[in-house]
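Ops channel
N.P.: pipeline sanity check, posting one input/output pair.
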């Protein structure tokens, strides 16, 4: 969709932020980075499995459909991943107390241990990358990142003018 001709020019700082976020996203999402993380963690999990485990580590007991929405993927993709994680002993399915026909996904002890290890290694990597930053800079960055995420979430909820709903 083309930008309307009346749109004001984008400030250079906004362009620089977008470029930095694009680079961070690329660096964090590279297969080599994931392989390094898994080697340090000691688990043979793919990126999709790690994403699911991280979500469950934040909010245990989620329906598979909710996971799919949060990950912005098809439900069938989550179902396949959950089957693998269940076979590996990282998650179990439990009845939803609010709707006995539905199931919730819950981390097992092994799943929680995997999440804890993934977080620990991630925290160590982040600490190493930001070792030369002052505590004040880290606090400011943290606050600004949270604000950025909140604004992105709020913006994602605003319908795009002229776009058809799926």
């Amino acid at each position: 969709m083309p930008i309307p001709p009346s749109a004001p020019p984008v400030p250079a700082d906004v362009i620089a932020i977008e470029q930095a976020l694009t680079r961070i996203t690329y660096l964090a999402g590279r297969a080599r980075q994931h392989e390094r993380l898994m080697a340090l963690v000691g688990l043979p999990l793919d990126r999709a499995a790690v994403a699911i485990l991280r979500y469950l580590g934040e909010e245990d007991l989620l329906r598979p459909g909710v996971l799919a929405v949060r990950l912005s993927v098809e439900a069938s993709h989550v179902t396949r991943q959950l089957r693998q994680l269940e076979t590996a002993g990282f998650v179990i399915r439990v009845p939803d107390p609010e709707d006995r026909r539905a199931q919730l996904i819950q981390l097992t002890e092994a799943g929680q241990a995997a999440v804890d290890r993934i977080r620990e290694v991630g925290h160590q990597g982040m600490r190493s990358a930001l070792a030369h930053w002052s505590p004040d800079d880290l606090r400011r960055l943290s606050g600004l990142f949270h604000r950025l995420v909140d604004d992105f979430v709020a913006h994602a909820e605003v319908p795009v003018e002229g776009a058809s709903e799926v």
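N.P.: looks fine end to end. The two ends are 16 Å apart (CA to CA).
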